[in-house]
Amino acid sequence: EPIIQFTQVNKVYENGTVGLKDIDLTIYPGEFVVVIGLSGAGKSTLMRSVNRLHDITSGDIQIGGRSITQAKGKELLSMRREIGMIFQNFNLVKRATVLRNVLTGRVGYYPTWKMLLGMFSAADKQKAYESLQRVELADKVYARADELSGGQQQRVSIARALTQEPRIILADEPIASLDPQTTHRVMDDLKKINEELGITVLINLHSVELAKEYGSRIVGIRAGHKVFDGPVASADDET
Ligand code: ADP
Ligand code: ADP
């Protein structure tokens, strides 16, 4: 059964800009799918549609066989909990500790007032610590987020996503602001959690080289249309 399924998805922004045009896309559990395309092609629009950071204009998106397009209230929250998100700019709370940042992956599991007071259970702190171990940053738990390098901050955001215990990780240009060396470290971590934990990864990249190095499948987007979808080996002629 597919874990992500787009059926005839269209997204038109309020000003009339076409974000996505007639997208059909089926992703199975455990896949590592790289979305490539030029700037403005619609990659972020596609990502943000998956966990409904914005609404689509028409069509349907199913997550694990349930329509997130139709979901409301608690059902939408529980579906979003299954989807971890990683952003180009990390989206960390800069002045908070690494541990505190990673614990925000538990948002939605707690009432807001407990979150604000930092009242997390021992089990959740343990979970956060284990996530940090997986990205080899356990020695940084009490460091302030903005004391870390860009690559380390991105790995903290991977740990935050893991703490959510997601079935899917969406990574929207996660390496766009990193240097080449750090880039590989972050990509290696994403590959590792895909292989070791079986988490489905959907990632946006500008670089075709990286897409081929890490992806098992490439989806090409141009002007909101899906123009390529296939295994990496067959992507050579098209890219
Ligand atoms: P990227 O190309 O990395 O996706 P952009 O610089 O295109 O990022 O967009 C940054 C932000 O500006 C996003 O939140 C996006 O939704 C918004 N944005 C992009 N293009 C437009 C536009 N034409 N009108 C209004 N907002 C836009
Ligand atoms: P990519 O991630 O591939 O760079 P985006 O998904 O950010 O592309 O953008 C796709 C198209 O939608 C672009 O033309 C962009 O300017 C436009 N766009 C993105 N966000 C908005 C927005 N909030 N309002 C209007 N247009 C937008």
UniProtKB/TrEMBL annotation:
Gene Ontology cellular component list: membrane
One Pfam match: ABC_tran
Keyword Cell membrane included in the entry's annotation: yes
InterPro entries: AAA+_ATPase, ABC_transporter-like_ATP-bd, ABC_transporter-like_CS, ABC_transpr_PhnC, MetN_ABC_transporter-like, P-loop_NTPase
Keyword Translocase: yes
Positions of the ABC transporter domain: 4-239
Keywords: ATP-binding, Cell membrane, Membrane, Nucleotide-binding, Phosphonate transport, Translocase, Transport
GO MF annotation: an example: ATP hydrolysis activity
CDD domains named among the record's database cross-references: ABC_PhnC_transporter
Protein name from the UniProt record: PhnC
Lineage: Bacteria, Bacillati, Bacillota, Bacilli, Lactobacillales
